[in-house]
Write a structure and sequence with these properties.
homodimer, alpha+beta, DNA-binding
DNA sequence: CATTAAACTGAATAAAAATACAGATTAACT
DNA sequence: AGTTAATCTGTATTTTTATTCAGTTTAATG
C-alpha cells in the first residue's frame, strides 16, 4: 500500500537528488513548495530512515546525498556475498568482466568496491554483469587471478 | 613536513575506522586517551576537512565513516552542480573513470553527454561511477584534462 | 631578528539535527 | 462498532555540530 509517508520520502529523495540541500530547514521549505506540509522533525526522521547522508565536498561545502545501502557490511559477509554471486571472471584488454547471478551485479560491484583492491580504477554494474576498469592489460589479468582466488575461497561454506 | 595537525587527522581517521563513533564528543574523548589534547571544535573542523561522513546503518544507528575519495581530489573551488558532484577523474587505457558522490553518477553522465565533448564515444553510469569510452588512450587523457579543468573552474586564485 | 600575514585552536555560542512527549491517526482484531 | 496496540507527526526541547571571536603559534619576508 502506498502511504502518505511513502510519497513524502520519495519526494525527499527526489529533491535531494535534484537540488543542493545543506540543511533540513532548507529541505523542509522545499517540501512545502512541493505540497508536503512537514516539519524539520519529520525530515530528520525520514533522512535517518532513508540512510541519507550529509557529505562535505572538496570545496568544504556540505550537502545531503542519497547513499545506496549495500555499502556497510562486515568484511567476512562481504566476501561471502561477493563470491557466492559470481559465475565467471575474464579480462578483455584493461577491463575485467564479471558475470554474476541475475540481479546480483550491483551488490557484487559494491562489495568489490569496498574491498579497495589494488588496480581497481572503477566499477560499473548492470543486472548480471560488472565491468571493472584497470590501468592496463597486465593489471586486469592480475585482478582476474585475485578474484578467482576469492571465488574458490568463498566455496568453503563456513559462516561467521 | 609532518605537522601536529597531520598526526592528529591521521589518528582521527584511524580511530573512526577502528571504532564505532557516533558523536564528536566521543571522538574527542578517544583522542585524549590516545594522547591528543583536542576539543570538539577541532574535531568538527578536522572531520569537515577530511570529508568524513556520518552514516545511518540499516538498524538506524549512526556512526562516522571515512569516505573513500581515492586520495586524489582535485584542488580548487567547484562551481556548478556537475562539477560539484565529481570526486575524481582518471583514465585507464581508452576509458575515463569518473567518481562522483553517491547517487550522482547518472546526473553527471547525463550532464556530460549534453556537453557534446570531443572524443566522447559513449558513457555509462552506475551509482557513484561513470565510465566514458574514448577512441584511444590519447583521447582519454585529453578528456581527463578537460574534465579536470571543469572541476576546478571558477577558482579565485592559483592552485595550492 | 623584527614584522606582518597566514594558519591554527579553544572557549563560548549559534546553528542544525535528533528526540521526548503527547496527541492523532491508522491497523488489527473481537 | 469498540478496543487495543502500533505507527506516525508536531511542538518543544535536548543533543550534537558548526562557527565566531580572540588569542597563539607558525611561516614568510625585509
Amino acid at each position: 500500500m502506498r502511504t502518505a509517508k511513502n510519497d513524502r520520502q520519495e519526494m525527499i529523495i527526489k529533491l535531494i537528488k535534484e537540488h543542493d540541500i545543506s540543511t533540513q530547514d532548507e529541505l523542509t521549505s522545499l517540501m512545502k513548495k512541493n505540497g508536503f506540509a512537514v516539519t524539520q522533525a519529520t525530515c530528520s526522521r525520514d533522512i535517518k530512515e532513508l540512510g541519507i547522508i550529509k557529505v562535505t565536498l572538496p570545496n568544504q561545502v556540505s550537502k545531503y546525498a542519497v547513499l545506496d545501502r549495500t555499502g556497510d557490511v562486515a568484511p567476512g559477509r562481504l566476501l561471502n556475498v561477493f563470491s557466492n554471486s559470481l559465475i565467471s571472471c575474464k579480462s578483455a584488454m584493461n577491463m575485467v568482466v564479471i558475470k554474476t547471478l541475475p540481479g546480483m551485479a550491483q551488490a557484487a560491484a559494491s562489495a568489490l568496491d569496498s574491498m579497495h583492491l589494488q588496480y581497481v580504477v572503477g566499477t560499473i554494474a548492470g543486472d548480471d554483469t560488472v565491468f571493472v576498469a584497470a590501468p592496463g592489460t597486465e593489471e586486469a589479468n592480475a585482478l582476474v587471478s585475485t578474484i578467482d582466488d576469492m571465488m574458490s575461497a568463498g566455496n568453503m561454506s563456513s559462516e561467521e
